[in-house]
Amino acid sequence: MQIDRRIIYLFVAIGTILPIIFVIGLPVSITPPVQMAFDRIENQLQKGDIALVSFDYGPSSAPENAPMADAILRHCFSKGIKVVVIALYPLGGLSEAVNEVNKVVAEFPELKYGVDYVNLGYKDGAQAAMKKMAENIHEVFPTDMNGTPLDELPIMKNIRTYRDMKLVVSLATGIIGEWWANLVNAQFGIPVIVGPTAVSAPKYYAYLEAKQMAGLLGGLKGASEYERLVVNSYPKLAEVYATPGLYTATKGMDVQSIVHLIMIAFIVFGNIVYFTSKRKPRKAS
Amino acid sequence: MPGLGTWLAAFFTLCMLSFLYKDNPFFRLAESFFAGLSLGYYIGIVMNQTLKPNLVLPLIHDFQANWHLVFAAGLGVILYFRYIKRVAWVSRWALAVYVGYYVGVNMMQKLHGEVIPQVGDTMLSLSYHGIGTLWNLVMVIGVLSVLIYFYFSTEHKGVIGGISRIGIWFLMISFGAAFGYTVMGRVSLLIGRMVFLVNEWARPLIGLIT
Amino acid sequence: MKRQIPLLLTFLAGAIPTIAFFVPQKHVGLVSTTLDSWLIIVAGFALLLGVVNVVQMNTNKIKRQASGWPYAIVLLAGLAIMGFFGVAGAFDKFGGIATRPDGSSTPFDWLYKYGFLPLQGTMFALLAFFMASASYRAFRARNTEATILLIAALLVMFGRIPFGEMVSKWFPLATEWIMGKPNMAAQRGIMIGAALGAASMALRVILGIERSYLGLGKGE
Q1: CATH class of A30-249
Q2: SS3 for A59?
Q3: Over the stretch A224-279, which tens digit does the pLDDT of each residue have?
Q4: Which residues contact C49 (CB under 8 A, 6 or more apart)?
Q5: Which residues of B touch A186 (CB under 8 A)?
Q6: Residue ranges of the domains in chain A?
Q7: pTM score, two decimals?
Q8: In the list A54, A93, B10, B156, which could disulfide-bond A170, CB 3.0-4.6 Å?
């Protein structure tokens, strides 16, 4: 039975728009990979430790990766962990890093740029940059994204290599997240958490199981779980996430649920039609 | 009232979404403009974030310590010789260095960072220790059967064919899971755009009208 | 000369990081990390190769007034506008390419937020619709393998949403089990096979056996 594809598009569009207007507020359960990521930052990192957050995504996956980035940054800042931000994804990584960091930092007025966090900007070469950072990060990023020499930034005074950092968090689309696991973690030992898009997430379970990663935030679901964890642990963040009109992964999961049900219904309906049409010729004979 | 930027973003979003009805000049206009913007974006970030801080400024401020970067610049410029017919063959030198470096890095990355840890983690204990033994068996059988499926140097019949079949079943489970996640991923992207259209463009507009 | 030198350069460029991996000696490490610095810069130049190609193609299209040539003008206009503000930012005009210290957007950042981001975001968002349509049309339990794929997909799609847990706590548990055990095993098998293939291809390139990337055939 042929349904015009535009009817299907209409169902998907309505299924997306209605839950945005009429927020449902469905609960989010936590899965072990996300809990591992949260526990690594919450229990293994102390105030004053350095975390490297790499924005390895662009607008093509921003609705998934941006909520992860926000949640991780809010968690780090709430715990007093200092954050060094970089970007290795050419098509939008820098701008995403700038916009997300600016957005989150505005919620923490006590933070000082260059002391509590810094944005070193984008660098070409990905693997070359990752390898070189193990020798001297100041040679890879001689200045921050605005051109200020690293020697003038207090946070960077004692950071030379991965040994001076406690954790790498990569919010990734595509293969760059894998490189943090199979190049940086494998060769230099620093723990890595990756927040991949849902499309890439199934592959990362192999790295997680082999302990090449310290945690995994898979897609919008992973982002919503991490939001739930930080909201439960930090009451101040609960207020932030309750801001009306703020797009969060948790709200996005409401919409996700409805659209998934629509697609499951279409798939099941399509199969019912397929099996009944297969049986009809036999009945006729 | 939505600002100029929001109107522009909404216009572009609707132009792209119009493709769902059918191909039309608005979609093609938006698509072409997007292609141009992305290339312009590359120019901006490469010049600002790599060439200026890592090449130009080190050569200007301390040539003595950084003179070797001239070779890097030379290699980069030579890449563009491919567009000049008479000297196009020289661009192969730069390409050779670029490709050679990345395959060299990749080779060790794959062997040391993928093959060894993944094979090592597959060496699981199959001696009885509760339900964990069953899951370990699933993992070991899964990995081995998939590897045997991808071994095409021998015909897939008999025992090899049977194990290969099991490998296919594991692959089908994995692809089904990947499909489920892909659906989630694609829908997330749609949610992002619809949230913008509804919350940042339509709602303020409707609020203004009503 | 035209053949030998590129092959030698490939060998050296590939061998240096490999040797440095095994030989933790100061001078070997110095050569390797210098090469890392160079390749960051060369990668930047390489990224812009495509720009030259596209400009060439589209100017030819406009000159010949080939089909769709007005769109080529739009493309070049987009490139020129964004590129201009990008280059100007490198000379510290208009406040650079990020945001200014007061939080306001530079022209480059403004074009990104209100031009590039909605365009690319919506382009990828269209995939959700196509996926829904394709799933309805093509996703059929035609045989054993397709049925396994269908069941796994439906379980993951249902188990990953809050409704799945509201119906039964076994759905999210089953989903997590599928991801962590059979999916992980299959992905690991694919990963090992692909990694061995990639490593052997890399060795072929470094040793000069594989030369197609230089535009050379087997006998050349």
Answers
A1: alpha beta
A2: coil
A3: 999 999 999 999 899 899 888 788 999 999 999 999 999 999 999 999 988 888 77
A4: B79, B80, B82
A5: 109, 112-113, 117
A6: 30-249
A7: 0.94
A8: A54
